[in-house]
Amino acid sequence: MSPPVLELRKLTRHYPTPAGPVIAVHEMDLIVAKGDFIALLGPSGCGKSSLLNLLGCLDRPSSGELLIDGIPVSSLDDDGLARLRNQKIGFVFQHYHLLPRMSALRNVELPMMYAGVSPEQRRERALQGLERVHLSHRLDHTPSMLSGGESQRVAIARALVMNPSLVLADEPTGNLDTRTGEEIMQLFELIHRDGTTLVMVTHSPEMAERATRILRLRDGRIESET
Ligand SMILES: Nc1ncnc2c1ncn2[C@@H]1O[C@H](COP(=O)(O)OP(=O)(O)OP(=O)(O)O)[C@@H](O)[C@H]1O
Ligand SMILES: [Mg+2]
Q1: Pocket probe mutation, ligand 1, options 48, 202, 216, 221, max atoms within 8 Å of Cβ
Q2: What is the value of pTM for the model shown?
Q3: 178, 18 in Cβ contact below 8 A?
Q4: What separation in Å is there between the alpha carbon of 105 and the centre of ligand 2?
Q5: Which of 53, 158, 212, 218 has the greatest count of CB atoms below 10 A from its CB?
Q6: Which pLDDT belongs to residue 1?
Q7: Which residues are near ligand 1 (CB < 6 Å)?
Q8: In the prediction, which pLDDT does 141 show?
Q9: What are residue 224's phi and psi, to 5 degrees?
Q10: From 3.40.50.300, 3.30.360.10, 2.40.40.10, 3.40.50.360, which CATH number describes the 33-62+76-225 domain?
């Protein structure tokens, strides 16, 4: 049997501050199985982004352990961590985080450049990825020429292009109007139906309802699951 996509064992993150440590994530235990679609809900400051940054290996825990596809993250050095991030994890952020001087096509090619994929393959897969998010007519647009919804679709294509085990999204519709946000949610549902494991932070209980598991966080802990 294959290991879970994510396993958290007393995962903890403290931030040192002059006023003493802030406990953002407190001894969290959780198992995320392949194909789960998890929504993280909770008040501002409860640790949602801190948790997502740990899950995506953008940050390291203060204590506890995180396993991704059975691999203990603590066993990896910085290069190993960067490789794991590139190959197993796709990120979608509220503010898109696209590279401003690059076209939509180049932005989607980028993770494959880091992975050493050949230029022909890169182009082919980026074209397919942008077609999947209905952006074949915007290949040469740079981010400043794209609408918010289009930018987020480029970011989603970029997140998916390496076929990651896990897609993490931090308030992916937080910057979008209701209708555009709905389009992005439909895209996530499609991605989920295709078998991708998703963890999405949201402030909206309606958006959270679209997930298969809803976790409510409070003060760095999982308060409840529905
Ligand atoms: N780099 C940091 N240094 C010190 N404290 C931090 C740092 N980053 C976050 N915190 C604190 O950790 C706690 C959790 O923050 P986090 O950003 O994870 O919350 P959040 O649930 O994502 O909130 P929001 O809904 O507003 O985005 C907060 O109390 C925050 O002030
Ligand atoms: Mg946040």
Answers
A1: 48
A2: 0.93
A3: no
A4: 28
A5: 158
A6: 75
A7: 15, 17, 22, 24, 42, 44-50
A8: 97
A9: -160, 160
A10: 3.40.50.300
pLDDT along the chain (226 residues), means of 10: 92 95 96 96 96 94 96 93 94 94 97 95 97 95 95 95 94 91 92 94 93 96 93
Strands 166-170 vs 197-201: parallel, antiparallel or unpaired? parallel
Task: Specify the pLDDT at position 2.
Answer: 83
pLDDT recorded at residue 217: 97
Asked if residue 14 lies in contact with residue 24, where contact means CB atoms within 8 angstroms, the answer is: yes
Provide DSSP, 4-38.
PSEEEEEEEEEE--TT--EEEEEEEEEEE-TT-EE
170 neighbors 52 (Cβ within 8 angstroms)? yes
